[in-house]
Amino acid sequence: MLTTSALLPVYAQFPIRPVRGRGSWLIDDEGAEWLDAYGGHAVASTGHSHPDVVRVIAEQAEQLLFYSTVVPHPNRERLAERLAALAPDPLDRVFFANSGAEANENALHLARKRTGRQTIVSVAGGWHGRTVATLAVTDGARYEAGAVRAGMPLSRKVPFDDVDALAVAVDDTVAGVIVEPVQGMTGARDCAPAFLRAAREICTERGAALLFDEVQCGVGRTGAFTAAELYGVAPDALTLAKGLGSGLPISATIVGPFLSEGLASGDLGSTFGGGPVPCAAALATLDVIERDGLMANAARVGEHLARGARALGVRQVQGRGLLLGLRFDRPAAEVQRALFARRILTGTSSDPAVLRLLPPLSFSLPEADLLLAGLKEVLA
Ligand SMILES: Cc1ncc(COP(=O)(O)O)c(C=O)c1O
User: Fold this and answer.
1) Do the Cβ atoms of 196 and 233 come closer than 8 Å?
2) Taking the model in full, what pTM does it have?
């Protein structure tokens, strides 16, 4: 048995030791198959070890494993062009890093730099990462405490979907408003379109930057490439990570002219960000998502899951596409454990009653039916 005693004990562990993965399935160390409706925390966008993604990674690794951003590389340039084309106008410039927190950290940094202001407004239930600046805008006492200990001023939090509170909070000291169009941690809570539209208007009017954290909900998960597109609201910066590289660490901060203006060499940086191999993985991921119609699949299968869950008596289904939250009359952790016993992986959330589904975007209708059948047994 593998020992984890040298690791810091910071992660709760699922009861599985996966050794292989294919599509929506994991094979454990005893050869048993598990249906993965958690997707390695929304990372396995194209499914586990998609052969086309793996091949492209191997080819690039063989060609040139790494060189830093001190030299240009066609993968980095092509990926930036693809993302700029996929992001809503006027987002047209991209900075690459390695994690969601870094992408958000850079978006916050750019908002403060551009406006010369310090305060950030964020939304109750929002979750943005574990660096000091992202902890300061994340909701929850234990996260905020980490920022306070480091001397970082906390964001002003407004209640979820509360336009009036937002209008009051965004004054002329505010550099930016950071929001997840579909919140991940709270269990796939999707913002009202009117809230995001109002956020756009308020930010423009007060000279603040609107920052969309699409680290979890982006890269096709809602059924559109970005939730910004789905909602028809263009932020000043949009961050992507998790599903972007199908499992290799890569994140992107995509900005429009408001935040790119005046930037010069050395204003941002990352040794590993935009390396040839993660960029190759992201290019292959985009190819598979487009070629296999995975965004339409996420919308279709998400609808099917939502309908099926409601038919089983699930009290409320929230979220978009394949980022769904199922609200039960019993603790979600109990439902998750019962599904584990049936070799089905799902996620919980910060809301004890909400179970989170974030399967690969390639999750099929028969796989959705297997998940619903498992749920039916658990809820019986
Ligand atoms: C919405 C959102 N933002 C930021 C992050 C942080 O990403 P990372 O863990 O890659 O730093 C996460 C991670 O769960 C997330 O869900």
Assistant:
1) yes
2) 0.98
